[in-house]
Batch of 4 targets.
Target 1
Amino acid sequence: MDARELTIALAGNPNSGKTTLFNALTGAHQKVGNYPGVTVEKKEGSCVRDGRRCHVIDLPGTYSLTAYSIEEIVARNVIMEDRPDVVVDIVDSSNLERNLYLATQLLELGVPLVLAFNMADLAKSRGYSIDNRLLSSLLGVPIVDTVARKGQGTDELLQAARRAADDPAAALAAQRVPNYGHEVEPHVKELADRIAARRPDLPHKRWFALKLLEGDNETHRRLERLAPDHIEEFRELAARLRQHIESVCGDSVEILLADRRYGFISGACTEAVRRSVETRHEWSDKIDAVVTNRYLGLPIFAVLMFLVFQITFSLGNPMVEVLDGWKNHLAGAAGSLLATWLGEGSLIKSLLVNGVIEGVGAVLSFVPLVVLLFLCIAVLEDTGYMARAAFVMDRLMHRIGLHGKSFIPMLVGFGCSVPAIMATRVLGSRRDRLATMLVVPLMSCGARLPIYLLILGAFFPPQVVFGLLHHTVIENGQVHTSYYLSITNQALILFGIYVLGILLAIGAVKVLRSTILRGEVEPFVMELPPYRMPTGRGLLIHVWERAWMYIKKAGTVILAILLVMWVLNTFPQLSQQQVQQFEQRSAQVRQDLDAGRLTAEQADGQLAQVEHEQGQAALAHSITGRLGKAMAPAIRPLGFDWKIGTALLGAFAAKEVFVGQMGVIYAVGDEADEQSDSLRERIAAEYTPLQGLSIMIFCLICSPCMATVAITARESGHWKWAAFAWTYLTALAYVVTLIVYQGALALGLG
């Protein structure tokens, strides 16, 4: 075994097959996390080839090494600061001129470089004939053909990488860099020489010179740290040279340098690449003519996204119910066992059952949704369709200040906000990711549906507003009309709630993008990669990474908060004297039953009433109950009392908890599902339809569940964004509900 570890950084454009090659090289020996301080995903892995251990870093996919996105900054920071032994640039062989732009910048950076011409089989099938030997000599770097999805060429690629890393001086000496012509090249050299004279130990001198001429602020800050005594000199010289170049050439330095780089690439490809006439009309082009069509593109996209939604939640929900059933069975068995050992009222029993088992079960029950969601997204990404979807949606989403791909997590948000916020990773810009995850909770998730159904059933008996295909039956002199196809008032109200969430999301995006997230929407620069058949191994790795991250990261946070909620619902407990009073009442009922003064049915009813009153007293005495009463004056203008406030506090754990909390308050308890009519009747007897509508609106908009808060903090990289989302959504819910409730009262509709 060679003791020297070889560190390889994999760079490449999105859709070039970089991650597939990373998986082919490292297999299961991978670690996934985030780069320090940013939400960009960091992947590292290892492999052993020919007796030498290789440490492989999968850099973020990027089209260049400019400073326009966090991915570009992270990629070049890793190369410049961590200094891998060799950089392997993964190039889509069927789109050389676009993909080699990144290679020219890596050449300018001055690092040992190897080019992996990936999807070589696809390039050949599309009629490309590439003279690798000639192109390698023109660029001055080794070129290896690979087919990552089949694992072909990986051994040859690692051998080329090892040769370049073992003799970096020779590798750098062989490299060719673009020449920027007689008007620009002398000034690049002058600035690079000045940097070398002041800081001869500084690497990447030509790169620094080019970036200073381009006005790259990130490079300016880096040089400020590396050469604080000379930064002003470098900046002034760069500004003077840039002004001279632009006055002579009549264009910005960035455009001039980009033109020269593409010219350098075009010249090399003209010499070394040939293409046959027979493949001029390709299958990808024919498919794109349909799926990106001006009129058909949007409906096709809508159908596919609907299928993703249906697959995720139609297949996922039964599995969620199974896991939830297992959780309930485990909680019941553990509760019975612990009650035998420790007593029915044991705090340890309550903590383990209601806190730990219920908490972990709540986390694990989401896993099928996460797995199915990312499986569907991975299939669409790996086939190449996701790029087309973004292209189709980009114009529409730009009108509300978001990137085209923001539509995907927003759509998923109608099922569950947790995987929806995780799905914002498909967005390249941090501003777009933040704006999307801040409005995703306004998409009415499935967890809110039990609340809507409870309120609709209590206050709005179903009435047909519009019906088709009816039949009429006369019974006992009464006419009964039934419709096969109908729209009811309940459906319209429910539809209106969903639409309200969408409209509020649009308004929120416009405010966010014009204030705290001000800035241009990221330009649409995504390539339209060729269609490919995804590999089973690649799909499994993608799904496993994200599912495990969800379980490991979000699960621990959710469990911790659930334990806090258990404490708030449990303490302080009723005094011994109060408990004895309830026990004495129960004992008196049993005595009356034994003496024949009460029937069994009457005794059961009175015992249930005593138990209900004891539960209400315990709830009112707990921290949660006290908070509900404390917030009662604030929520009274919304039509809410302390009981609704208590249920809203419980709903912070998960929206469905609202129904369970109301069931506890109204003595329905654990039988809320079986006796939902009873709960609806009790609520309808105490509140008005306007109050019911206010509850629906508030629950639609208000603070997301703690799982969503935890994921927002995780994906945004900071708890401040989770706190902001919680705060602004709660404030918005209060204002909108206040307007609806007080406005209706003023109009006499209460």
Target 2
Amino acid sequence: MAERKKQSLLTGAGVLAIATVAVKLIGALYKIPLTNLITTEGFGYFSGAYAVYNPLYAISMAGLPVAVAKMVSQNVELGKIKDAQLVFKVARKLFFIVGLFGTVLLTAIAVPYSHLVKSPLNYISIIAVAPCILFCCMMSSFRGYYEGLNNMTPTGVSQVIEAIVKLTFGLAATYLCFNSWIKSYHEKAVDGVATVFGIEVHNEAEALSAIYPYAAAVAILGVTLGSMFGLLYLFIRYKRKGFGFTREEIVNSPLPESESSIRKSLIKIAAPVALSSVILNVSNIIDDTTIRNRLAFALESGESIIKEMFGASLAAAQTLDEGIVNYLYGAHASVLNIKNLVPTITLTLGISAIPVLSRAWATKNKLEIKSAIESVLRVAMMIALPAGFGIAALAKPILTLFYPNLLHAVPIETPMLVLYGLGTFLFAIVSPITNMLQAVGRTDIPLRTVALGSAVKIILNFILVGNPEINIFGAPVSTTVCYVLMLSINLTSLLKVTGVKINFVSVFVKPLVAGAACGVTAYGAYFLFDSKLAMGNTVSTAGAIVCGAGIYAILMLLIKGIAKDDLEMLPKGEKIAKVLEKFGLLG
């Protein structure tokens, strides 16, 4: 049996971060051309399916792996290898039932939900993504187990496989189908009149509007297929290598608890974690429903105001009156693609912290508890603050770079991305703090804060988005306020529960100062490259990012904002640390 791999907190986070960056790059290669192909309106259908899918997905990819990882790490630390093995056996059975139920439930609610959000054809995409719930639940049993053993590599590899399959199938199939349907319309149309998917259309704009729901469904089939191949990889890996326990470890392990006892413990840990994710994501469904309905209300009560605000964009996109709500919703969804990049990377820190912090908490190792918490918070801030300021400073150039065929939406999207950029540190740190609270057994705290934050978010959406003069711009405001509330409560609770006093200057102040300088530098550099040197948007944006990142790195070294441990997550990190130590540049 292969030797079991172990990774430190930051090494494990580094593995997942590298995989996440790869996944996000692949995702960009998927979503950006996809959005350019099916336009903002079509992407609204794609995102609408995700909105109802995400709560069930959150159970499989947040609550369930956390429970498995926590139980496995604690059992292994105590030498109870047979119990750890039994956790996996029980988890596979339990997660299969949960996944199957989720798939059936999502299929059953597809049609009524689509009518509820005033997007009747959205059900096609929802049904296409439904099997993904079962595949993801099954993956969770494997991923949680490996993560509990401090081996993040299988999770990272399976994520990359998912992304590659999604890219190759989803994009290729959507491109072929979309162009085939457009070609068919032109061949059948007489004076612009033809039947497209059972709907009589009178021009190309109406034909496109009829095609978008089906094109989005084909695209989202790539997501389902990707999850199936990710599961296949984990299953084959397990059959070939197992989990790496030695025969001696197994023989010397005490007899395990009963399956029913393991099942109860698993559910006891998973339930509040999953419930937190469900509340957050159900609130996102309500949020999604509220945004669409309140946008419809704003359009009805102030149509002239909205058309005056977005007239040029709507005309350039050839958006029909009945497509305005979906267009604005799609614009917001396009911004979320960029807004979610950094939090997805910092989420890996929280995942890696679970087994490390769980073991330290079980053995009452206060020094390791403090080290783990400070490392997660500091590295999250070191990533999120410069990235957030950079996104805010370069919002328009980034959107222009990402969506070259949808420039008509950039004026709408830019203000939203600026606000989301400034709030990046909030979005990036809430999940890792939640994971750390879960690791020390306080799953009840995130549960309460998620419920409170979600309620505030929905109320603000109802008020702001329904105002014709604010409309879609109310969505990022309500999200930001929600995360301010959750961060304040969760961070205060984590420090109180663990008794840890962190170095606020090292964790927050130094990255803040250097991050702000990064944003200012990026803004100035872009202005120089684009306006003065006329180097074009792509080169100017890339140059501005390099300049901002360079200034950030230099300042962080000068103010000793980087600790030696922080470099562990980088390839060759120890060698880099030794060189920097010689010059006295590490904190």
Target 3
Amino acid sequence: MMKKIAIFLLLIGAVLAQSCRREDNKQQPQLAVSSYYPNSGNAGTLVTIVGTGFNKEATVSFGEIAAEVLNVNDTSLVVRAPREGQTGKINYKADGKTVEVGNYTYQALSVHSFFPTNGPAGMHVRISGEGFSSLNAPAEVLVNGVNALVVSVNDTLVVAEIPVGAGPGPITVKVNGESSTGANFRFQAINSIKPMTGNAGTKVTINGAGFEAVTTGNIVEFNGKPAQVVEATETKLVVIAPEGVATGPVTARIIGQLLPGPTFTPVPAPRITLVTPLSGPAGQEMTISGLNFSTHTDENIVKINGVTVPVKTAAATKLTLTLPGGTGNGKVEVVVNDQPVTGPNFTDQNTGIVSVSPSAGLAGTKVTITGVGFSALPGENIVTFNGAAAVVESATETTLVVTAPATLTSGDLKVQRAALTANAPEQFRRAGTMTLYKGSLIAFSASAMAVDSKGNVYVSDRNTAQIIKITVDGTASVWAGASGIGYVDGPLATAKFGAIYGMAFDAQDNLYVAESGVSRNIRRIATDGTVSTAKAGISGAVGRLALDKDANMYITQTWAGILKIYTTGQTEPTHRNSVSDNCTPVVDARGNIYASMDDYEGIVSRWDANTKTSTTYWIGEYGQYGFVDGPRATARLGYGFTSLAIDNEGSLLIMDKNNYAIRKYDFATDEVSTMAKFAGQGYADGSFDQAKFSFSVIDMKVGNDGSIYILDQGNSAVRKVFLR
């Protein structure tokens, strides 16, 4: 029995011993030399050899002379250059193996150490050693082979500036044709960040050099706010933009050194304003319009029913992609730099509507529907406008021409073919032009127009100094100035006015009247009919009038620009550029002023209320009038537009009379579009493509209901453009 126990114990011991040997073999790293420094010096210089798998029983020789080993561990070994040694190879010997470390030169020049051992370009590093001074030529310093600026030098110390783009590598000093190479400098830099825009929660990749491979070793900040580091290598960090991030540099602090990086700019979450088509087959192009998209395609992720679809082209307000088919039916989603937005539903089918032209009209308007999957037989396509069936005049597989029904109302436009139904990207709006009043009370000397909160329209006449009131049902009468030309305050029935050039209502329905002549005044007609003088004896010309939200007054003064008149009566010259006295200016909610620069140019100029500076060519360029929609920088307007207004959505409207159009500038998208394009010169009501106006369209105002009123002087009429 005892013999069996002894055998068992011997077996256990053998297994454990074998296991230990395997563990020792597993833990013992392979011998390798990665670097050594310095590579020169006198006898007694300490040389460090860096690598793996060093043995405490190893010997190191300089040529044939053994060196004293001072310190050794698994990754480094320090020896003293022997006194009897000669220039030549350093050899490492252990376990019967010999590894060549490199060459060592016996000379006075030697790089011993430097501090700091890591940092970015532009940082000063202090290099300690021997033999740096020279009477023949100054010492040279190279970092990873790149010349560095030497700031100062003596025999044992050189101060140098880390050069741009050096990268990680050894520091070398050259003197009198000799060189000495020290340890590797850990070059650190942030080369780029991607994306450069986003917001809190955006994942940002930082590319560079000299980072810590452990996330906790890297402190990253966005304009001073700490960010979470989620991934780290020596050349790349992935971080999460922090809450409350503001525009500013991305920086990293690593091993005591601060690394500056590019600017990160927070942008609002994306918005989807239009997706077209809302249904369609594989191969069809989809356009997503909106705001705050990235101009880099790979920074926009589009999903349809959860299926990612590659983005083909990207602009700040528009993305395009090709439908892959097979996505199924579901929401359109866009994620821009980790900021998501959800759009409308998409239907994966063979029928879809890409565009509708015009997108607004009246009963009888010819409408062209462009898309895919229609039937070439008109009767097989059922088209409805907000539920009312339309007559299909002609059909191809990609185009339908229909007549808007007599019972047209604003709403969804749909095309049905067999069991498939396609929705238009936008609702079709019942919109057009009607005449509110046409008659002799509006003479060719009509000068300005204003609309009160109830929709009553007031038209001034500069020759008679009268104001005509036109009620919402089109009834016109002389409302003010019946007692003749003059300057009399008091009750409306007896008040007298001078030549009227501009009018505007404030938020309380008080009417302000700018009059020119011998006495240049702004008069105020209160809601109770009392006339008073808001500002008397204005210096300079008195032209068109605008009010801001606080009822401060602005009048055009041609070459002098625009004069701001506070409710207190104080005045301030603004917009000191040439402005047109034939175009009504407008003031936005922030107090910025927009005006026409000249009667013979298609230019909108802008005065910034914050900086109190003017931009002459804000929309348009000198001598380059035309009819071009698109980005503000390239958009073109007709010359001599006559009125500017702010609509109920905050966009800038331009009465582009020479193009017979109302143009719209959207502040959010920075783009100019055409709100309404009329048929041309003449007189006709109806849909936009049928309506005609005279060449003498002189003023435009926006009503509380969003309708647009136009003073058509040449037709002695007030016209109303309704948009729904």
Target 4
Amino acid sequence: MKKAFLILILLTLYYQVSFGQILNGDLTGSFESNNIYYFNDITTNALQPENPFGSNNYLKLDYRKGLFSAGIQYEAYLAPLVGYNPLLEGNEFVFKYIQFANNYLNITAGNFYEQFGSGLIFRSFEERAIGLNTAMDGVRINFKPVSYINLKAFWGKQRKYLKNGSGVVRGIDGEIDIMNAIHQDQNSTILLMGGSWVSRFQTYTGIVEDYPSTVDAWSARMQFEHGFFSFYSEFVEKTNEPTINNQNSQEIGNALLISPSFIGNNIGVNINFRCLKNMEFRSEREAVSHTLLLNYLPALTRQHKYALANLHPYGAMARGEIGGQIDVFYRFNKDSFLGGKYGMNISANFSYYQNLDYRNEEYQKFLSFGDKKLFQDFNVELEKKVSSVLKINLSYIDMQYNKGAIVSGGNDFINSKIAVVDVQYKLNSRSSVRSEIQHLWTKQDEKNWVYGLVEYSFAPKFSVFASDMFNYGYTNIHYLSGGFAFTHEVTKFMISAGRHKEGLECVGGICNQVEAYTGINFSITTSF
């Protein structure tokens, strides 16, 4: 069935491309290849894999003609790069679809990505940088009978490495635009109400009586916007399912997200509060790590862009957490006392998470604070254009990280302070030099770190960089790295070499453990 489906798509693409002048269809695509040759490095204890050459490759083709579209994605892991699951090794057409869409109806057969609400109950998506892909394979229908009602439904199985998992997933989502429904001016006020239901079925053949083969989750959400103010809230409840990931707990799952924000002329404030209890939701009960996740639980903390601030990243605790963050942004106008000639931006963030309180050894109290701090981060960043050619970013981060609770299961707690100076100097209209100096102070874990980077860019064609991350007072290891990138039209080539420290690598608040490696990297990306 799958081979016939693939042949149908390929024949359709071939036919449409061959007669493109007549049919006026559009074919687009992209190609990405990331390759690393690994070396043994006795200094960092990085070992060369059995296959010293890792290669991740992605080819995507999409064709559109009128109301119809079709596409395929081919992936080859030969072998998977370090940090990617070894079970990805091989090659396969992992994404293939045919779609019909007009103003009222959208039907997709094959693979698709989808999200209900904020993703607390369901989200299928791709993050190539950490090897995460939770695409569905089945049928999806989006129906919009009137302008203020949007309905979605799907049925299918979820991607598991290069194949599909065994669990069957079904979902329904509905949303109504209240102000549009009552014919009010949408430019002044937006009020959306929505709800979702997601169910997963997986046959159980074990010996435990009354073990659930079906796990259901439902959610309700509301979004309000008026003037400078907006508010979003979502609540989820999930039926119980004892697994290895929740220590075989029989408790139901709950999630609550509340997010108000205010945006004025020069100021912006955003608040995120979230509580999770037993909210790991997968399409297979035996799955671990990032495999077969149905819902999206990113860390709601500042996503730092500097290397040392990402040595101790927080990962959401689906088993139980409560906390949130507040972001404040302010812009000082040009020619003001603090803004000067070019103005100045300042932003501050505070995030805090704690475990939940236990009613007994097995059951947690929802919306309660336990006795263990998981994470705390206070940071402030100042961005200032000093002159027409000089720009400076200054950052300070005070972070508290419960490594024992988040990563290792022990009692390690890390208090660190990080300072960053980021300077960019414009040499002329096309070239610039950027440099960073970072320092991390801590008495725990691996003690102090210093990081330096120099980067030269000749826009839009060429850039070259060199960096060093040095741990002094503990391992005294230098993590040197360097490389260059060249861009020609829509194609980018990059070559780099150096050491990579063992630790968590995060993209969009989702983290993956990556072991240490030393190697030479070559990558190419292009689109057409």
